[in-house]
């Protein structure tokens, strides 16, 4: 009889959690609010605190980023830059796109466009989120997930350890090495393009100087040569560049204007480009991890807001 009662209690608990999940996702602020006969409220805004997926998404990002950073041999400063960026991504998504943190509650309606890997990660995160909700429910009743409870409860570390082990088993071997290869390719492409750009600038100035030297007494020709050189350089600067190069440029410019960044990225009043490139590599690695594992959308809106944040 005791076993039957335990099973019934477990079933009722799961039903209660499912009911709360569906009401919160539908936009009800009060989980006991009666459903209106004319349907759900317009423009519901789910609250990510209701759904305990954030710590598991964070762990998935950190675990895979750490693997990539190790392959790239990033130093501790760049690793910390990557970890800080992970927190920035989570805060941004929680504020502007909470549906990306809440998507795991919809996991039973799988997206056909997802890869098998992304679907597997979604299932694991949904499963462990449900387990954490059960712990919260056992102690606090069906009141929703509390992040402070998660971070201060020792039993949940065991849950996180099991989660990380399951991720490890579900992550294809050497996949993070391939992500590191992507980051290295982006870095090498940037350096190659920057060297080519600098060579072209030198050639333009050299050609203008050659015309000036050949016409020492003709101010009009000298002016025309200089204006033509400026125009060519202006056109070069307006050409589209890679995301990696955009980040390097934005961070470099910010380091020259912002005193706090200047203390980090300059030495003897000169930019430490190696440090800037390494930190951008860390940020780029996090973006690749988000894309490959389907953790967050690294879309144009996010990238634009992120780059503008350097200004």
Your description of this structure?
- This protein has 311 residues and is mostly helical.
- It has a domain at 10-26 and 46-172.
- The chain is built from 13 helices and two strands; from the N terminus they run αααααααααααββαα.
- The chain has helices spanning 2-26, 54-72, 76-96, 98-102, 116-140, 147-152, 155-170, 175-214, 219-237, 243-257, 259-265, 273-293, 300-308, and strands at residues 266-267, 270-271.
- The chain has a two-stranded antiparallel sheet.
- Helix 2 runs antiparallel to helix 3 (76-96), helix 2 crosses helix 8 (175-214) and helix 10 crosses helix 11.
- The longest helix is centred in the middle third of the chain and has 40 residues, at 175-214.
- The chain is elongated, with a radius of gyration of 26 Å.
